[in-house]
Amino acid sequence: MSGDRERQRETITTQTGPAESAGSGSLISRALPKGIYAHFLLVDIASPVREIRGIPRYLPIKETPTFLGRNEKVQILLDDPWTIDLWHARVDLREAEGKALFVISPVDKARITVNGEVVAPGGFFLESEDVIQIGSAQLVFFKRDIHAAPGRKR
Question: How far apart, in Å, are the Cα atoms of 121 and each of 40, 60, 103, 110?
């Protein structure tokens, strides 16, 4: 396993408390910087409306923070009332060493896995093609930075 990936498993310090991460309204949403594009691809979910909504489904990340869950106020709605919390996960954009990095973290005591590993409360740096499990929902994360130099891994 590469050193970069090992560093991603370290606990990430968050700047907000539990009330803020649960969507209390005290957060300022910001559009993603120009040239940064990210999305999830929902590939599976055990939901009563699964066939109506269609799988796979493209779910763009347009701003940060982006919340995933069942609440009507989340940016990415995952509609399984049996395994997904109202405010289940949060995605933030962080800058480190001149790179824009996305971090996913659980809200309160929700459970999330990335590539089969449980995500700690501090979060996990996402890379393209990471597989995220949120309740019964399985998603794949993709990020593209059009400002990256040609030939570099995106």
Answer: 21, 23, 11, 9
Spell out the per-residue pLDDT of the chain, length 154, in tens.
444 444 444 444 443 433 344 443 334 568 888 888 999 999 998 876 555 567 888 999 999 999 999 999 999 999 899 999 999 999 999 988 888 899 999 999 999 999 999 999 999 999 999 999 999 999 999 998 665 555 555 4
Dihedral of CA 39/45/47/51: which sign?
positive
Gyration radius (Cα) of the chain, Å: 15
In this structure, are residues 31 and 62 in contact, taking their beta carbons and an 8 Å threshold?
Answer: yes
Q: Domain limits of the chain?
A: 33-145
Region 33-145: CATH code: 2.60.200.20
Distance of CA 55 to the CA centre of its chain: 18
